[in-house]
Design brief:
This protein has ten helices and eight strands.
C-alpha cells in the first residue's frame, strides 16, 4: 500500500537483470516503491519532467552520458531528489565527484544485497529524522552526516540486515543444505530435502544467487521449458 510516507524510487540502469534485482529487493522493503525504471540519461531527464521521485538509484555507465553528469543535471533542476550511485566505477575521481555532487551513497558492483538494503534503510531513517523536527542538535546532525555504514547503531544495522521475506533462521537452514551440495538441484528437489514450500525455497535460492553464493543453470534435459537448477559457489 502506497501512502504519503512512501519513498518513491526510480532506477536508472541499462542492465535489465540488475534492474530486476534492485526493483525486487527495493519493493520488498517497507516504505519503498519503485515507480519507474529508465535505461539512459536522456530517458531519465524526460521522465523527471513528468514525475519526480524521492530517490534515484543511478548507474555511472549509461549508453548516452556518464552518470555523474546526470547527477549534476538532477542537482541543478531537482534539488529535492536524492541519489544513491550503484556502479562498477571504483576510481577515486568518480567517487569524489559523486560526493561533491551530493550522492547519499555509493555502492560498487557486484552489489551485495545486504549492503543495498542497509543503505536504503539508512536513507529512510535519515529522511524520517529530518522530517520529524524543525530543528535538531549537533549530536543528531553528526549522526545524520555519518557516511560509513559501520557508524550506524548496531540495532539499526541488525534490523536492516535482511529484506522483507527473508528470515535469518530460515536462511541459515537453507545455507546449511546448499553449502554441502556437490551437484546442482532444482527448487522442488531442495524444498523436499529441507522441508519448506516451493515458493519459499525459490525466494531464498534467488536471494543467495544475488549474494553470489549460488549460481543458476538451465537444464534442457526434458522437452519443453528448461528447468532452473541451483549450484553452490564454493568460496575460496
Amino acid at each position: 500500500m502506497i501512502d504519503d510516507t512512501t519513498i518513491n524510487v526510480i532506477i536508472v540502469e541499462d542492465d535489465l537483470d540488475a534492474v530486476n534485482i534492485y526493483k525486487h529487493f527495493t519493493n520488498q522493503l517497507e516504505g519503498f516503491h519503485v515507480i519507474a525504471t529508465t535505461s539512459s540519461g536522456t530517458q531519465t531527464l524526460q521522465m523527471l519532467n513528468m514525475i519526480q521521485p524521492h530517490l534515484i538509484l543511478l548507474d555511472v555507465f549509461l549508453p548516452d552520458m556518464n552518470g555523474i553528469e546526470l547527477l549534476r543535471e538532477i542537482r541543478k533542476k531537482y534539488r529535492g531528489i536524492d541519489v544513491i550511485m550503484i556502479t562498477a566505477a571504483n576510481d577515486t575521481e568518480t567517487v569524489s565527484e559523486a560526493i561533491r555532487g551530493g550522492a547519499f551513497g555509493y555502492l560498487i558492483k557486484p552489489i551485495i544485497i545486504d549492503k543495498l538494503v542497509a543503505t536504503l534503510n539508512k536513507f529512510k531513517t535519515v529522511r524520517e529524522n529530518l522530517h520529524k523536527n524543525n530543528s535538531i542538535n549537533q549530536e543528531h546532525v553528526d549522526l545524520l552526516f555519518q557516511s560509513n555504514q559501520k557508524d550506524v547503531p548496531e540495532q539499526v544495522e541488525k534490523k536492516a540486515s535482511y529484506p522483507k521475506g527473508i528470515d535469518k533462521h530460515t536462511l541459515k537452514l537453507v545455507r546449511n543444505h546448499t553449502q554441502v551440495l556437490e551437484t546442482s538441484v532444482s527448487v522442488d528437489e531442495l524444498s523436499q530435502i529441507v522441508g519448506i514450500s516451493y515458493s519459499t525455497m525459490r525466494r531464498y535460492l534467488e536471494y543467495l544467487v544475488s549474494l553470489d553464493e549460488m549460481e543458476v543453470e538451465n537444464d534442457y534435459g526434458n522437452v519443453g521449458r528448461p528447468e532452473r537448477k541451483y549450484k553452490s559457489i564454493k568460496q575460496q
